[in-house]
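Issue 218. Parser rejects a valid record. Input:
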Amino acid sequence: MTKAYFLLLASTLSIGFLHALAPDHWMPFAMIGKAQKWSRMKVAWVAFLSGIGHVGSSILVGGIGLVLGLTLAKLRGIEGARGPIALWLLIGFGIAYAIWGLKKARRNKHTHLSEDQLRSKTITVWVLFAIFVLGPCEPLIPLMFLASQYGWWGIWVVSIIFSIVTILMMVTQSLLAFVGVQLIKHEIAERYSHAFAGLVIALTGGMVMALGI
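Output the parser choked on:
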């Protein structure tokens, strides 16, 4: 193995780490987990599955592009188009969830879960998963192209390293943020927890879009 190869692997690790620091990679899980009273295990599990969808979609796009001989510029254009769509979906989801949370806080004064509430929890998990599948790992495809000079083995190693780092960061940060928001104990915060969660998620998506991270 050459020094250039090990430098590529080190760059993959560091880029995956920095990429996953963006708050849209972990804040939604912490806030929804708090609002819906998830266990730590469920927060970790949902973040893990969403992380697989997040990196897996970009690996699929990059792999197809390499097989078809598409240029990096074309694939980056595809990934670049997916990014704003996913952020707008995240913002829209946050706003819709906040509105639903406000209505729920005003009409629901008991703690027993109805069938509709249980169904809404399931829907929320799948909506989050879908948003992360649509959200691209934009740094990954250029790394895959750089690794292509080492053959498919090099591409898979880079993809696996990036995926492990990204998913591990998503799960870890989600759990840390979840533990942090659990410390907020106030009657208003509890009653409007869904509305607050939606607002924070929408603001998070807007901030990431504004900063271009």
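Fixed in the parser; the record now loads. DSSP finds nine helices and no strands in the chain.
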